[in-house]
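Structure ticket #2291
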Amino acid sequence: MSMNSLQLARSLELPSREAMLQRAPSVQMFWNNNKTLLEAAWAQWETSEQERLTKIDDSLLDSALRDAVTESWNDPLQETKVANLMHEIAPDVFQFQLFDPERLADLRHYLDAVADAEIPLRPPYGIALNRGGAMLDARSEGYLAAPSFQNLYQELLDKYMRPIARLLFPETMGYDGQTFGFSIQYQANTDTSLRLHTDASSVTLNVNLNLPGETFTGSEVDFYDSMSGKMNRYVFEPGVAVIHRGNVAHAAHPITSGKRTNFVLWLYGKHGQTPSFHVPQTLADAHQRWTTPDQTPDSMAPF
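Resolution: structure written out below.
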């Protein structure tokens, strides 16, 4: 009896961690050769598990944010209601409640099922390899292609992140039509920290997925203030997102106990373009901010 897509995907042998870290040509070949198979496997998996999986959609989001964003899409002049939910925690670094903490268990239940699906997922390996993470965007090989997850992912980017970014950082408009995303997990004795770095994005959104009461120690994030030369330290809370320009240097301290799980989402322009933050820009009005770019995704992935 021939195997179906899900069975075939589960029978694949993943490239080794060493090969991934070395960017071996065989790793790229593995993902490229199995792209169609893996996408079909995720669709088949979700269909086969639909009675067991929790529904993931924008009902997982904080209701105050969801209502303010919906009002702003209907009438962009209401965007001050969104702005009022943003809290500056460091120069040009803002936090807001993205996910409803009481609904995070539903999202995590879905992600736990993903982890148990036995379908190969490519971990992020940018400046470091994060073994507990996964690529989320369709531009990335080995991404999480489950249809309902992709619907939620695109909604987070298009309906929420992009207009919020334009509201806070107006110069990024026009450099926000391309998307990128991945998940990360920090855990003591495995992947514990990330050195000081900037992102190849116009805007970065980093949201914590820990459940209420799912504590960790360490893993604070430092944001560098280039004006004062000081670091501003931040500790993530369940469902809270931090949004900042990609050129803001930041680092994750070593985690000493527990786990920290986050989604990291990027926006940037065609072929990786980002704005020059030191050149005066023509600022858009509210009605322009609350639009979706008519831009075809390119094939470039930052890593």
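Closing remark: The first strand starts at residue 87 and ends at 90.
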